[in-house]
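Please predict the structure of the following assembly.
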Amino acid sequence: MSSLFRYASPVAFYPLAGRLVPWFSGLALLFAIGGLYLGLIVAPPDWQQGETYRILFIHVPSAWMSMFIYFVMAGYAVLTLTLQTRLSALMMQALAPTGALFAALALATGAFWGKPTWGAWWVWDARTTSTLLLLFLYLGYLALQNAFEDVRRADRAGALLVLVGTINLPVIYFSVRWWNTLHQGASISLTAAPSMARIMVTSMLLMSLAAWAYTIAVVLSRVRGKILWRERSSQWVLELLRDGRSDGVDS
Amino acid sequence: MPPRDPDMQAGSLFEGHTLACRRGELTLFEDLSFALDPGQALFVVGPNGSGKTSLLRIAAGLALPHAGCLFWGGQKIRAAASQFRSRILYVGHTLAQKEELTVLENLTHTLAVDAVHLPASTLLRVLESVGLKERRHLPTRYLSLGQKRRLSLARMLLAGRRLWFLDEPASGLDAKGVEFLESTLTAHLGRGGMAILTSHQLLRVAGAVQTLQL
Amino acid sequence: MNPTLSTSSDTPKRDAFERASEQVCEAAQANMAAACRLILTSELRMALRNRTDVAQPLIFFIVVGSLFPLGLGDGTSRLTALAPGLLWVCALLSVLLSLPQIYARDAANGTLEQLVLSPYPLAALCGGKIMAHWLLTGVPLALLAPLLGIAFGLDFDSGALLAVTLLLGTPILSMIGAIGAALTLGARAGSVLVALLVLPLYVPVLVFGSGAVEAWRAGVAFGGPLLLLGAGILFGVVLAPLATAAAVRIAIE
């Protein structure tokens, strides 16, 4: 176990991340091709929604990943505030843009699905509103990171913000759900997902795995850049640049 | 009684070990250590921007060092931080005075935050000794910098704290004010007090004085 | 069990300094009530000396609230229907405006550092600040809202319920706002940033607050959201001072 803790140092993590990125990129590509093939070509049109349901293969994994990433960030936030590790703060900063991207993608694809299905580009149901506010939370976090000269303060303030947001997220969801019952009554069930055939479930799963692998690949590669920038005045980075290698110092 | 750290041999009361501080990518200082006993003062000297104020803030517990730790009586400070805070007093560049409050109100409030409750007569006596008794009902926005520093001195005299952290305590003081500051510090050290200060100008304080050059 | 700090063996164990410090420790350790009271009286006294600063958010509330009839036209039935939600949003924005004031002065004149270094628990001192902010901003807004509601054609009962929801909601706004204000102390474009951070977190309070009035007007049960706001206050009273204290420590560095 102690050998794993070695990777909590940016110096050791940098080359490890570099080795992992191509694997996860490859996995992401494979899963995506598999999922899209099954979802777009093999799966039959839905008896109720026709072809338009296919956008769910992107919408559902995006929405799920945007939430999952936020909770992973919350985990790193706890580490940053308690153990004061630099790498956990960098991981949070690396995760945020991808989380925001997935949230925005979920909202956009949701709108494209919503128009033919519900007749409206936008509805204020609990899930849509929560995803919108989640996007704002991501953007707020990114804005906070850029607002300070002192990086340690930016790290810790951002971590605290993420934790406060994590507590608020379920509250936001339930508050909007209640608000919906108040304004539209329980007659319209906007959260009903179409019942899906097994092949659709499989392709949904593959796309989720693809999103997950993509996230890991992108976040690891982003965090490598942040490590280099953060440690730019330290010995190992200077040696790296001098040697012209990009795979990291083998410790 | 909790056991003392075995690595410390007859250690001093207040110690800093291998402290490091960075501002952005600039390392202000590293591997810096000091030790202070009752009756001793530490003068931190150096050019502007060398990290004197940062060291003071780290030692007082306002900022976390990038490396190293602080000990009081052989024990790490983080473990009993509120007890450490009851033994120290910090006066920074800005004098922690609310300009809308009068001299007496400021003194009472600052002492209350320090959890010190003294009768009004004691406060008045000390205000008189620093020459602010006539002005005690004046809002501090109308005081000169020298007078504000004397109010700060009144607080230092009343708070009953052993360890003083003073950031440029002589700036803005005239010759008489500097004399008063020096005699106050000397008396404080004589009673067994300690002080860590940054100062551009030379202060003559009788007692065991160490100098730390940044 | 707090570990006691020992002094080194060559100091006189109980000189005047030690006695004074022990007294201070006794007075301050975990003494939440005294810390809160101390800050509360200080903040209220400062408010009396800085009346314009305290009045500004309230004046803003009235000004912004008056913009709606001008913008929406004077069809009073439309205005009355929208009134609870509009007034709640105006109150929210007014609270937002008042947030930087919680710490800005103290950070500038150095008294915030003294709070961090005080032997009193910082969470209790921050709790006092939050309470003072609520008394100076939240309560007046709750009392002003029904009055402004008259201009919107809001009837007495709805106005009273609106005041109640604001009285229950504004403490939560103060609590979350204090955390946001502490996090953004000294940051670039701080007041805009605090709005961006805090408004998504304010949404549930807005939903439950204005929703309770809507529910009552629609004739459905409205006790639920009120209870939820109350639960939010209890939850916040425990967590917000701790989170605010952590944010202040981060800001002070």
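Chain A touches chain C through 32 residues (CB under 8 Å). Chain A has one domain: 2-243.
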